[in-house]
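Submission sheet (multi-component)
Chains listed below:
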Amino acid sequence: MSRIGVFICHCGENIAGTVDVAAVTKAALDMPGVVHAVDYKYMCSDPGQTMLKDAIVEKKLDGVVVAACSPRMHEPTFRRTAEEGGINPYQCEMANIREHCSWVHEKGAATTAKAIDLVRFQVEKVKRDHPLVPIRVPITKKALVLGGGIAGIQAALDIANAGSPVLLVEKSPSIGGHMSQLSETFPTLDCSQCILTPRMVEVARHPLITLYTYSELEKLDGFIGNFKATIRKKARKIDEKLCNGCGVCQQKCPVKKIPDEFNEGLSNRAAIYVPFPQAVPNKPVIDLANCTYYKTGKCKACEKLCPTKAIRFDQEDQIEVHDVGAVVLATGFKTMPVNNFSEYGYGKYKDVIDGMKFERLASASGPTGGAMKRPSDGKTPQHVVFIACAGSRDRLKGVPYCSKICCMYTAKHAMLYQHKVHGGQATVFYMDVRAAGKNYDEFVRRAVEEDGVKYVRGRVSRVYEDDGQLVVKGVDTLLGAEPVEIRADMVVLATAVQAQNDAEELAQTLHVAYDPYKFFAEAHPKLRPVETNTAGIFLAGACQAPRDIPETVAQASGAAVKVAGLFSQPELTREPIIAVVDRQPPPVFSHCVGCFLCKAACPYQAIEEEQIKNRNGDVLKVVARVNPGLCQGCGTCVSTCRTKAIDLQGFSNEQVFAELMSI
Amino acid sequence: MSSHHESSSAHPSLAARLEKEGEVSVADCYQCGKCTAGCPAAEEMDVAPSQVLRLLQTETPKHEDRALKSLSIWMCIGCETCVTRCPQEVDLPRAMDFLRQEALARNVANQDADDVVAFHKAFLNSVERAGRLFELGMVGEYKLRTGHFFKDMGIAPTMFFKGKLGLFPHGGANKREVADIFARARAVKKESKV
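Outcome: structure written.
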């Protein structure tokens, strides 16, 4: 027979003002199994806790019910106290007679009766409680950061500086990401490369960071603290140890007419190339699709001329498997292809370009050395039209969301143009100017008020060519929607920000949720913005939503702190409120029949298949097993299980039914 | 269809001249409409005050013309409610003043505003001549210009006996300095047009 103690809290007047606590105490004493019941003004106070602790010892209690506030408030307090009194903390339960009773009902007999019922529930539950121990999971204190843009760089540096090793995996030949392509950055007009390259070098030199460029994550197994990452190092066809980055190979390579990705196709590169002069690592890579040797079996000019004999045509991809404890996703974004918008003439007219191309045109390291020369004939454009929301906020052909960064970069572009071309005119067509950020609106106003950029509120319907000149046909809604035609020398489209092409695939590989636009989903939009719903996987930067640099860096540091916090613990301790599959003596072994409906239902991928073998190693039965590291105790599998083989520790079917049957 | 924003480089736009002559930058206006919302004369206007600024912002002859020919610039009573409330401190009354002078110079003032134009001229002429307003002189010129000889005649005796309608210009006016102001304004205008 149980020896249960019931402790009823007045919570000052919060409970006692509405509920007749003396009556509850008296009723509790009549409940079967209850040997002690007492009420007190504040159970959570020191004297209240001492009262509970002493009673456990004196009355030899084996279960405790505290009737007070929400368990969210004080369950840890009372469980700790119960443990100090000498019983298992999971044999202390709380009856919430405040939020669920006194705060939501009028004073009266019915309210007191409800409080008594709530106490009875917990008495029936605590009778069936089993001692539980917290789950301990070891942690591999090494992080995997996916993506080597500014988000990944920041996260990797912060984690490494906190003392943990980091594997930084980047799929392109150099780290740096989009930020390395930018000319200047809003709202301060800092040169992008000037502020980025020191960080890139720091990453390369950091003793705790291992850089995997030209590499991809193939597979991720395991769970928080215990992931196994399979990384494919694509063959650069270069011995990185021998190569000293002298650049002779790319000068001598006979194939030179390949559109340069880094310059957005505004210049050409060779088939063996370093993406840009400040690349980290400064080692070339052979582009197999364009290399003459791989196409015809002849050439090998680079191999012949390489002074360090570093070319390795027979080099193969390498697969490496690493144990990591946490993952930061920092895979970034892409800009939307504007092919859907034939009305803007992108692809048809050479002088209709997108924002990234403009960045390269304006960049001192770009194909024009920062001189404003239009792609078609290299002339300086005298009138440039910028079209904002080219794809954003367009449900039909683009994306319905606001891409967030375009208002600012368009203002920056127009400003840079006005600075570079004196006497030139930049005109911006916009729907709204969204410049929310520190010094952002001031920046946009500066473009208008000081640099003379013309803003026209309205969308552009068409860009066409007339007599060799581009004509932009739009509307000025601030003049009563008056149609407008501008003869322009160049048109720049502020294309929408989109998730990477492989975002969905990657999310599925990692079991990370994503939104309808394939951006990775955060665990809570406000309170857990850098965590995913998969424990141990964190988010940084524009892979989650369109973001600018300051936000990306802030989020990357946030994700890094989450990783560092995880790694600061000797091992993971988790509440033992998890599902378990029953085990029976042979020949049953388990009531589980191996249908694995639970596996399909589990939102956390916590169900594994387990083979029960005899001593000869023959498989006798395949049953479900719950991975205690992944299970979040939601109970979905319990309700799915057809043979009632799964139960939730601490909230077993038996307990829940007993609670219900008590009234 | 307008040729938006293509002010011919030969003549500076009205916006550019307004900035030079009146130190008012129409680019500062972000078209929030607060001026129009609070303007006591807005109901009498054909183009809302904020729209007058927008017409100047485009720096297009067609739009400038619309501003100059508007009734609004003559309906503005210069109460300065707009500039008091403007978040960007755009001095709209100054802009209106500039537009009135320009409309007169180009002889495009709105015909529905003939009486206002007459009053405007009579007022400024009186100030220029006497160094400050000479009420009787101004009334005389206004009546000559409009032909409304007997309008408001009834209140003249009361005004006269209260000393509001002197027979001679007020003494003590800094005639020469005021005349200088007019001369300077004309010079600035001439200079900025080049």
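Remark: Chain A has a mean pLDDT of 95.
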